[in-house]
Amino acid sequence: MAAPECLTLDSDSEGNEMELSTKRGDMSDPSKSPEPLPKKTLLSLPDELLSAICGHLEYTGHRKDLQLSAKRFYSLCRPWIWREVSFEENFDDHDNLMCHLVTTSLAALVRSADYHLTSPFSKSLALLLSTNLTSITQLTLSPNFEDEDDDDDDDDQERKTLPKALTVALKSLPALRSLKLYQFHEVEDTAFSIATELPHLTSLAATTLIIAESLFKNGPTLRSLEIRLNDFGCAAIVACAETLHSLILHRDLEEAGTSIAQNKCLNQLRLLFDPMRNKHHAFPLQSLTLEHFELLETRDNLVRPHPRLMEFLSALKGTSLSTLRLEGFTKVKCSANDDPGFGLFLPTVKDLELSLAYQGSEHCSLDQESILFLRSLLRCFPNATGLALDNWMDTLDPRELASLQLLELGIYSPIFYLLLEPLRRTELLEIKLSSSVLWDTKSLRLLREEDGFARELLSTDWDDDVRH
């Protein structure tokens, strides 16, 4: 019969318990002393686990420190250290990094690249990108602004055009799945098509692009799209609607006659997703983010819900939408303390995020009118179980909100105390409150209990953990 294992605590010369060790002995014969097994260390773990540990480190500096701690870690950490690289605008820095990657064979380890175009940008640089970084799955392209002259409009326009040499290079990246185009207004190659040239691409972010005639021709099978709401953006969404799982829409703040143009685009999207008009189309959309869209608008000196936006959101009831993020809006108060009455009903939404635009350190958006707004909005999502509120209560201290007794909380912040009651009447199981500016790394989490919510302070500072 195999001898069982016993867990014992080793002690030092003074009898203090030092560490846990494993010993094996014959329990049936007390005269035999147990035979100790070798003590296990971090390096006794298999390579797969050690590599996973390195991958969970957030900063490259920490990975480099781990790499230098033991010879075995050198090769295990190497792929993670060079997994992400950034090519700067300066030509010499750009050239030195590329030469280093090529001469040391590290280029094959790169999976994500943040690529700033140099000035000048040549076909040879694009060729180096396409022939050496063939394993990258994520690529971010940005124009060069290093020597930008504000008085030279032609030069500025040239910098904001995606060069044809780069679109040619993109065709030679077979592993590319995610592409981000920042600050580009147009694509030089007017015949370039994602569906034809990049058939395996699944994610695209192009929030400033306005001229690219053939980019979305033939319906690319994108699963994620980040785009600005204008005529070009609408055409992109229409082309990809049957494969999109995630959509991030930015309000177009630069176009003249923004309100009219926005209403036109919202109406076009409403018609696209309307389940009554498209009974035979199943749209797989699961996540929607609206950036800087106001839920309320002023009409005839009265503040009411934005009708076109509400109609667009209502049309999404035929999709699989489960996550909705509304970010960067400012209006949360209707006229004469009226209930906004959004006229919206989306029972599929489970997670809801409402982020107000930051309005100053002395501003607190939480008051009776905003609570009325919030209560009315939550009724539109009766099955939501998760809620995130950002920048709603910047002037309040999250430590106090987490630690005070319920009665003391009513004295410290009556308005926060007032907020808890309408939240309790919902199906919400978890609520996270944060301030992206003033609360720094801290946030307040409310967890559902039988008679209300337990409050917990979340923080990256170890000495700040508070529960009540």
From TrEMBL:
Stretches for region Disordered: 1-39
Q: Which InterPro entries match?
A: LRR_dom_sf (IPR032675)
Start-end of Basic and acidic residues biased regions? 20-29
The superkingdom of the source organism is Eukaryota
Q: What is this protein called?
A: F-box domain-containing protein
